[in-house]
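In this notebook, the sequence line spells out the residues, with the fold written below as integer tokens. This is how one looks.
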Amino acid sequence: MDSTLLHNISVWTRIGVPKIERETQQELKVTIELLHPTKKVALQDDVKQGIDYAEVVECVKELAKTERKTIERFAEDIAKIILKKFKPEGGVQVTMTKKPTLPLENVSVTIHRP
């Protein structure tokens, strides 16, 4: 299966388990892999034959406007809207990365939804 990989979409959102962590926006990096055939797009050189990744990015930015406690929930919300709106034949993989308040460089979660 072909795929389109959107690396490190930068979004700012309020996220974190403790309320104090959600008081200010934090930057998250979102990587999305859309599993779908790309042959029609390539043959016709027409994005309308596939998934317009600019629209995917806009959906992620819109979802970032809502406060959440966990990156797992945000990843699920992204996967759900992509599956519903863009219908990638092979599903979607979403990796969400943030800098935690703990002494770690970053923390991330990856989900795959068919």
